[in-house]
Amino acid sequence: MVQREGRWHAHTYEGFRPVACDVVGFFRPHLRGGVGKHEQSGADKALPAIVLAVVTAVGSVGKVRLPLLRLILRAAPSDRSEAALQRQAVTQAGAALQPDEVLVVDAGFGVAVLLTEGVTRFVARVARHFTARRNVLPAYKGRGRRAAYGERVRPVPRPHKGQTIAATPPDATARWVVAGRLIQAQIGDHLVLSTAKPGAPAFRCGVMHDPRYQEPLV
């Protein structure tokens, strides 16, 4: 109905339309039966809640951003874990993506579930300590056992026992301007999960620096 009215327009970036997926909780501390748990930032712990997975197309009506509901799911009675609900949502959302749509998730999902469930186009926020591996084996040094995994890639430097582990040099860099701000990015290309061997589904990792924020977005 909303689309037929012709007032809602999907957002488009470089020819791709974002489709957002997230897990939300309606907190009901005194409700009994059929209630799961969801992390509450103010309490810094998981609290009793009715947990739903929501998938929306991202767009606007006029100048007002309006998510257009595409899918809403509740955890199965047999497994009320958020992990199971995330997998279910990602599977259904990924299967319904149009060729010009990209699934967008936050750090609560993780790249592994997207790759496991076969989502081919996605953007996922990850933690700053995220690591990956090269999708090729390192050259054999002539001694010892040959490597079974690619070299580890650290997009961002991290402290460890009073010292700093340097970030892996990027494969490419990029710059663009948003609302007068210069955004800079370091890009790691053709990577696999840190637990995966070469030949596994590959992805790209970008570390974006926005002058509005002290920490980069990975």
Structure description:
- By secondary structure, the protein is mainly beta.
- The chain has two domains: 125 residues, no CATH class; 83 residues, no CATH class.
- Helix content is 11%, strand content 41%.
- The strands form four sheets. Strands 2, 3, 4, 7, 8 and 9 form a six-stranded mixed sheet that branches.
- A hairpin with a 2-residue loop joins β12 and β13.
- The longest helix is centred in the middle third of the chain and has 14 residues.
- The radius of gyration is 20 Å and the shape is globular.
- 17% of the residues are buried.
- The model has no long low-confidence stretch (mean pLDDT 90).
Secondary structure layout:
Elements lengths: L1 H4 L2 E3 L6 E11 L8 E5 L4 E13 L1 E3 L2 E2 L2 E7 L7 H14 L5 E5 L5 H6 L5 E3 L7 E3 L17 E2 L4 E3 L2 E3 L6 E7 L2 E13 L9 E7 L9
Parallel strand pairs: 2-8, 8-9
Antiparallel strand pairs: 1-5, 2-4, 3-4, 4-7, 5-6, 10-11, 10-15, 12-13, 14-15, 15-16
